[in-house]
Structure formats: structure tokens, C-alpha cells
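Question (not urgent): is this output format expected?
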Amino acid sequence: MAVSYRFFKLQPTAIRNDTSWHTGVLQLFAAGSALSNVAYADRNGYPGAPASENVEQLDNLSLGTKFSSSGSTGLGINNFVVIDGGTVRTVEEYRWRTGFDRSQSDMVSWEVHGSDDVALATDPEAAATWVLLDEQVNYAVPTGRETWVGTGFPLDVSAAVTVWAVGGTLHVVGFAATEPTPT
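Got this back:
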């Protein structure tokens, strides 16, 4: 499957054993190739981070670099990264690599969302409608440093939510960004 959105958000929901979150590389793929000409933004990140730990490092395949959400904010799982494709991009899967240090700062549960809300172009924290495209819970993230996690996680809008009613009872499978209104 493939999905088409301008913006993609990576949101950790659990970190191995720390209050900060580190990731080495984050890539989106279409037709077997990593997307190029994308911009990365983060929520508060690490003010004053060395150049080797800022959000742009997520697109850097060089060893010895990483994105770090640590520092004075201590946001950890409350931080997220938004990738702006510049225009609507069709994406089939994503992958990420662990940072060069601190295995305790690896995310072990996370969500990936998509959006076309143009307000995100100027403010990655803008109120936006996000669609859940993938969720990983208690994933067996390797403790090895600078190691690719998995072989590529497919993105699919069917991962978002399924809702149906039987005999007056509302059933929900999956997760939704907003609570559904029964009809």
C-alpha cells in the first residue's frame, strides 16, 4: 500500500529507559528510494544542540550524528518530528536508525501520522488533522548503535481506525486522532 500526504509526523509513545529521545536517521520511501528534498522540524527539540544533534541530522546518513530531544526541555515522548515533503508525496514505507550512543534513549513504541494541513508549513505545532498510518508498540528495537530498526515499516491508512455498530454498541478497532461521533 501507499499513502499520499504532504506532512508526516513521527511521535514516540515510549522510550526504552530515559526521558530523552534520540534517533540516528529517519527516511520515507517511495518506489524503493528514499525521498529527497524534504524538510524536518521538531517540537522544541534540544535548544542549543550541537550541530551533530539537531533535527536536520535525521536526513544525514553519516555515522556519528543523531537527532536529540534532550536538553533543558526534557520532552522525551512529548516531542515529535514533522517531515514536510513540500508538496503531497506518495510514500510506501519508512525506516529509522538508532543513534550513535545511549540505547536507553531509543523509542520502543511510536506512531506515524500523515496530514495535508497547510498550517503545518509554518508551524509544526499547529492544530492539524492527523491520520494514523502506523503504530508500533513494544517493538524489539536493537540495542546496537547506529543500527537500522526493522527492514521498512509499511504505511497504510487502514491502520487508522475501524468503527462499526452492532445492536446499539459502538465498536472501535485501532486509534483515531479525534473521538468518532456515533450516528
